[in-house]
Amino acid sequence: MTTTLMSGTPWRTRFAPSPTGAMHLGNARTAILNWLIARQSQGTFCVRLEDTDQERSSFASEASILSALDWMGLTPQEPVRRQSTRLERYKDTALKLWEKGLAYPCFCTEADLQQDRKTAAAKGMPPRYSRRCAALQPEEVREKINAGIPFTLRFKVADAPEGIHFRDLLKGDMDIPTQAFGDFVILRSNGWPSYNLAVVVDDLDMHINLVVRGEDHLTNTARQILLYRALDATPPYFAHHGLLVDQEHKKLSKRAGAKSLPQLMAAGIHPLALVHYLAGLSGAIKGKGIVYSMDDLVQRFNPMRLGRGNAVFLDEDLENINHTYWHKLPAHDLLPHIQGLESLGRPWQDMPDKHKENLIAIVQQNATGAHSFTSLLATLLTDEVTYSLEAVRVLTRPKNQKVIQVLCQILAANTADRNQPLPLQEIDALLTQTGTMAGVKGKDLYFPLRMALMGSSEGPEIKGLFHVLPLSNVLSRLEKAREFAPD
Which domain holds residue 98? Predict the structure, then answer.
């Protein structure tokens, strides 16, 4: 049976970023796809930090990447691995390849290599090592090593007219010509491994059986397959997805204004909205509407629909889906991601979570993102009301004042605890009674009450306000609105 991404194999996948900066959207999408494929197949999702770039790697970048993964809900199922702790393992592997005659020392300086690149460019050829040091005799090699001349180890790529063939689980049959890269470095002169050697050794040791990554790694895949063969090991399966591009079909980049994950987090994007959007860019999410959990997303994900082409990322599309999530998710899924709540002070901090969720639920339709909740909630945590000019005009009309007066009389006679909101089941009857006694209904009932309680025509629905505002707060707002009654 032909193996596919959905053939029942429990996939062991890995997300392997380099901690040289904040996570960008392309990396985020790769992480999401690896997590979804592993979870859907009852497999294992792993994270590996490829921190062999000594000059650019930093602990701050590591922390940022791991924080972004946690924020998106992409929890690895095994401890995070770091390449910098495995240098001896890589070095031993490189030396064994040298002993087998599959690698050789290269003493070329950067100036030598730069000249090779210029020569190739002048001939209209891709940059490729000239194999200058492959021709050195054993005694020449020994002399240079004994003289202390720095050297790298290069993997010897045999010329193969047919190239490197493999079956990609997304792109189908692939052939990469070896002429595209030539002999490549596997161990640097400082003893640190190259990217391709470290990746192969790690994926073998971690028992990774599926590598999911962007199509810009196709040439690296060919190099890695050669290393697997040299180590007498079976390569994992590969699935190369298209890249994220903008509406002009240019690759997303920080220089072109693409936001990083920390920037999107700070901008108030809900994590589930981002994960859903990136996972579904190529049509891989079945059905319409939001998903209410990562498990829901797993059920709706179809990796076979990822396609071969690039995926167009549009900021406005992400913003639209983000607004939908903030409006439709249950309040308890919004609470952990609302920003700036500490500014609301003790009234909010001392409040039970259930009451907080009720408040969030009634304002979320007016929210535009994580930042907008604080101002909306602040208006509900005080007895003070700021009245718009429209509200003043409405509240000075006698028929509207009658509605407010009637409601005050009914509530004054109510024996409920003044420090608690009214029970939900009593609110409809209360409003019906108010309308009957004031001789109004519909908009003539609700509009003056909204103006009295909120000071403007915008805000939560009236029933919701009675359900979340303590009775004492409601009475205080109504009494203040009665001050606009004409003499």
Answer: 87-163+173-187
* Predicted TM-score of the model (pTM): 0.90
Contacts of 24 (CB under 8 A, 6+ apart): 252, 254, 258, 260, 261
- One-letter identity of residue 436: T
Spatial separation of the C-alpha atoms in residues 443 and 436, rounded to whole Å? 14
Same domain, 403 and 455: yes
221 assigned to some structural domain: no
Q: What angle do CA 146, 147, 149 make, to 5 degrees?
A: 105
Q: Which residues, 6 or more positions from 179, have their beta carbon under 8 angstroms from its beta carbon?
A: 126, 128, 159
Sign of CA dihedral 21, 24, 27, 32: positive
Residue 206 lies in a domain: no
401 and 477 together in one domain: yes
Q: How confident is the model at residue 1 (pLDDT cuts 50, 70, 90)?
A: low
Residue 168 lies in a domain: no
Are 15 and 39 contained in the same domain?
A: yes
Which of these three, 378, 413, 447, is where a domain ends?
Answer: 378
- 229 within domain boundaries: no
Contacts (Cβ under 8 Å, ≥6 apart) of 2: none
CA dist 71 → 24, 244, 275, 286, 371 (Å): 14, 21, 10, 24, 17
Would you say 45 and 81 are in contact if contact means Cβ atoms under 8 Å apart?
A: no
Q: What value does the mean pLDDT take over residues 320-341?
A: 94
Q: Please name which of 297, 77, 300 lies closest in space to residue 208, comparing C-alpha atoms.
A: 77
Q: Count up the domains in the chain and report the number.
A: 4
Same domain, 65 and 34: yes
Task: Looking at the structure, tell me whether residues 286 and 346 fall in a common domain.
Answer: no
Which has the higher per-residue pLDDT, 344 or 45? 45
Name the helix (H) or strand (E) containing 20: none
pLDDT in tens, 65-117: 999 999 999 999 999 999 999 999 999 999 999 999 999 999 999 999 998 88
Task: For CA atoms 450, 451, 453, 457, give the dihedral sign.
Answer: positive
- H-type alpha helices, 194-345: 195-205, 218-230, 261-266, 271-279, 294-300, 315-328, 331-334
**CA atoms of 404 and 478, how far apart (whole Å):** 7
Task: In whole angstroms, give the CA distance from residue 314 to residue 316.
Answer: 5
* CA 191 to each of CA 88, 91, 143, 153: distance values in angstroms, whole numbers, following the listed order: 9, 7, 20, 10
Per-residue pLDDT at 432 exceeds 80: yes
Share of the chain above pLDDT 70, in %: 99
What confidence score (pLDDT) does residue 160 get? 63
Among residues 204, 252, 363, 339, which one has the least CA distance to residue 28? 252
